[in-house]
Amino acid sequence: MRAMLPEIKELIASRKKRFIKKVASYFEPADIAEIWSDLSSEEQLVLFNAVETKFAADIFEFLKEDQMIDLLNTLTLTRKKEILNEMSPDDRADLFATLPEQETGKLIPLLEEDEQIRTRELLAYKENTAGGLMTTDYITVPEQVKVGFVLKEVRNKAKDIDFIQKIYVVDKVNRLKGIIPLKDLLTTNPQRKVQAVTESPFVSVSLDMDQEDVARVFEKYDEHSLPVLDKLGRIKGVITVDDVLDVIKEEASEDIYHFGAAAVTDEYLSANPIKVAQKRVIWLIVLALAGFVSGSVLEHFSFLLSNIVTLSFFIPILMNTSGSAGTQAATVVVRGLATGEIRLNDIWRVIRKEFLIGILMGVIAGVITALRAIILQGNVLLGYTVAIAMIAAIVIATSLGGILPILFKKLGVDPALMSGPLIATILDTTTLLIYFNVTMWLLWRFH
Amino acid sequence: MRAMLPEIKELIASRKKRFIKKVASYFEPADIAEIWSDLSSEEQLVLFNAVETKFAADIFEFLKEDQMIDLLNTLTLTRKKEILNEMSPDDRADLFATLPEQETGKLIPLLEEDEQIRTRELLAYKENTAGGLMTTDYITVPEQVKVGFVLKEVRNKAKDIDFIQKIYVVDKVNRLKGIIPLKDLLTTNPQRKVQAVTESPFVSVSLDMDQEDVARVFEKYDEHSLPVLDKLGRIKGVITVDDVLDVIKEEASEDIYHFGAAAVTDEYLSANPIKVAQKRVIWLIVLALAGFVSGSVLEHFSFLLSNIVTLSFFIPILMNTSGSAGTQAATVVVRGLATGEIRLNDIWRVIRKEFLIGILMGVIAGVITALRAIILQGNVLLGYTVAIAMIAAIVIATSLGGILPILFKKLGVDPALMSGPLIATILDTTTLLIYFNVTMWLLWRFH
After folding, report:
1. How many Å apart are CA B299 and CA A313, to the nearest integer?
2. Nearest to A331 among B165, B257, B294 (CB)
3. Is the model's pLDDT at B264 over the cut of 70?
């Protein structure tokens, strides 16, 4: 697409509206949105006004938020009306939610009356809940009808409504009674009662369910769409699986950023370095202050260091290996908590497992480090000392790495905030304490 | 669901087949699969044989692989046939792919003839490609037909085929010519030619496309389903967005595990600790050996350490802060590469940004550390030394943290393998070198 940019620019420059419309229809709206920033705002406007309203609205929905806002400001009132009314209700509500209230107040009156009510309703839900994810475009039918009636409803409404794969059967007060798969509707005699094709019980989510939990329900039941119900069981909207795709991606990114002690940023490449630094430095200061503790441990045991200078050679490897072992354990547990494989009451299983893993890995790392002490420093006692310290440090590392994220979650804190760097910082202190105590008890005594 | 386990066990013990079938139908297959391991293998069999074939096959598809295999071995030949033929072709192929070839060879002949051919074809595709993700259950129609013909086709086939949201128009040699959305089919006069409702051009993926790339195509075009074409443009299958959900989750997990230097494990809680330790320890040995380098740096500069013992107090905080800063930068870049926000030719933008961020954060961390040296050690020269070392170390840390994942990707290595612990280990050495060189140049000279 980007390769064709010169031709596209030339085409737009020709101002042949009909020709532009025809050529644009060969492309996908997403592809046009991708090269949007390569067009001047004048070119954007010519292209946007040349194509059909539906196609234009599709392009619009693929744009980034700031691009949407810029474009909206250059459109005529008529075109603005057309586009906003054509947009899918959930995407439109998402856009309005990012605008200042004053701006939204000006745009809502441009919508058709029923769309206005809908939009205000959608805007009332929190962004990261089921209510914020759902669309209000779906078909409902009453309980006492025949299959033929439902089929007619679908035919009538399919022009305006994107989602027709399931039709929702509701009672007089809009409580959801069952779900009709379109597939079954098409293969059933129109004379039969709707009950013949209605699925009940069905899986649903509640309006205020967190989007992460919504994603889990989708994964668990392997559904393509789920109805959203209020507390009284009335249907308020429908979430389709493609909306959940973004949620899963977002949540994974958030976990990764937290776990790397990097602040969450929406856009990295276009972000101001000062702002990025501001966000990251807070964590760095916390970690640096925590690092003072390990510095104090060193200070406390400085008599050992000044007497046996070889001791210090093993500080980096001990700190590094235990930090890494702790990060490994924390990684698996943080991810397990996020995917739901590990639950809070699995804490004892995790501790037992990580303790064992710690012993196995500690022995191997301990032997390697001891060999270094014995071969390069020619000091067998030092070898024993670092080996014992290494085993103890790694056992503590894997155990703490496994426990701390679970404790965080128990306390209601995002377990991913128990980041790799934070674990490593905590373990620096425990590792140094272990090292010096083992030294005192073994090396110093027989020195 | 789990709360009702005693009642369910009692129900099964009653052996009232019709009653079991009725009660089971109130539950979702996914819920029954969730409590599967809480039932004895006898209970499983009674329940499984009591319910309808379609419902049983649904439960079966939600089971874990080992549960599937165990259950399959206890079924009668007739039931086995029923279930295997009822399964969706892609789930069945996935199951067969995990079994030993001999076993698969015995099961395939149980399928109906056309299902056998299909299964053999699906088994030929690699698991993590479009071919491995797709289903072969979809509807095709020739080019020269009317809308009414297509409608009739859909009605005839919808009983056996789950995916009917799109119908594929093919030429005589099965090359995909266009796509008909079911929605448009339902709202169009049956007398019209199929071209009136056929979308072309359309987005498609190729048979051998990597599943991660497939997921990106879904995200970019916001599609619910995509046709899979071979090199000649013939349609071979269809991928629906719910299959991509698992891919996105898997790929995110893989990245997180790599980045935490933790080996990828399918199941954590049920895994043998020895096996987990085996996988993790390889990384730990690599990191420990790399840690020898930093040990050697310390050894080389031991004359400094034995003369100025206070120097060692700042080693943990310097290593820790630079390691964390490097991890922060690497986290953002690894994730950016995975989501596609950062591309290989963005390397200079990343370097510039991380260099600036490094200076900003370095100054702040440097001042904090210098204050510690001045206040607690009362040594202003030491304060300058650690501050300068900190700034240089953090600039190197953020820059390397940003560059290394991109270089990894350029070399064709998974950038997430440039893990937090690996970055921290590399930075330990650079940080110590910087620290001692600054000391030599400033503190030692004026000592």
Report:
1. 6
2. B257
3. no
Q: If one looks up domain A2-129 in CATH, what number appears?
A: 1.25.60.10
DSSP output for A224-248: SEEEEE-TTSBEEEEEEHHHHHHHH
User: Distance of CA B339 to CAs B219, B260, B409, Å?
Assistant: 10, 18, 13
H helices, E strands: number in chain B: 22, 6
A345 CB within 8 Å of a chain B CB: no
Residues of A in contact with B222 (CB under 8 A): 30, 62, 242
B360/A277 touch (CB, cutoff 8 Å), yes or no: yes
CB interface of B with A, residues 77-136, below 8 Å = none
Nearest CA in chain B to A416: B256
Q: Does B281 touch chain A (CB under 8 A)?
A: yes
- pLDDT tens for A305-360 read 877 878 888 888 888 889 889 988 888 888 888 887 888 888 899 999 999 999 99
Inter-chain residue contact A159 with B26, CB threshold 8 Å: no
Convert the pLDDT of each residue in A241-275 to its tens digit. Answer: 988 888 888 888 888 888 777 766 667 777 788 88
Phi, psi torsion values for B201, nearest 5 degrees: -70, 170
| C-alpha angle A339-A397-A393 in degrees, rounded to nearest 5 | 165
* B1 CB within 8 Å of a chain A CB: no
Class of domain A140-255: alpha beta
Contact B368 A288 (CB under 8 A): yes
Q: Cα torsion for B347, B349, B355, B357, to the nearest 10°? A: -120
Q: Look at A277-281, B25-29, B344-348 and tell me which has the smallest mean pLDDT.
A: A277-281
**Residues A276-295: what's their mean pLDDT?**
82
Q: What is the Cα–Cα distance from A19 to A207, expressed in whole angstroms?
A: 46
Listed in sequence order, the DSSP H helices in B191-272 are 211-221, 241-259
Q: Which of B59, B147, B305, B317 should be substituted to probe chain A, the one whose Cβ sees the most A Cβ atoms within 10 Å?
A: B317
Amino acid at A199: E
How many whole angstroms separate alpha carbon A417 and alpha carbon A396? 19
- Using alpha carbons, select from B398, B217, B277 the residue that is nearest to residue A395: B277
What is the CATH number that goes with domain B2-128? 1.25.60.10
Q: Which of A203, A323, A346 lies at the smallest CB-CB distance from B28?
A: A203
R_g of chain B, CA atoms, integer Å: 31
Fold (topology level) of A273-444: Tetracycline Repressor; domain 2 (1.10.357)
Contact B154/A201, CB-based, under 8 Å? Answer: no
| The A166-170 sheet, strands edge to edge | A140-142, A166-170, A176-181
- Which member of B268, B298, B319 has the closest CB to residue A313? B298
Cβ-based contacts under 8 A for chains A and B: 359
CA–CA separation, B178 vs B21, rounded Å? 43
Q: Find how far residue A395's CA is from the centre of its chain.
A: 32
Residue located via tokens 């993926």: B205
Give me A94's structure tokens: 């998402």
Domain boundaries, chain B: 2-128, 140-256, 273-444
Question: Are the beta carbons of A241 and B245 separated by less than 8 Å?
Answer: yes
Class of the domain covering B140-256: alpha beta
User: DSSP letter at A260?
Assistant: T
Record the pTM: 0.80
**CB-CB neighbors (< 8 A) of B313 in chain A:** 295-296, 298-299, 302
DSSP symbol at B269: T
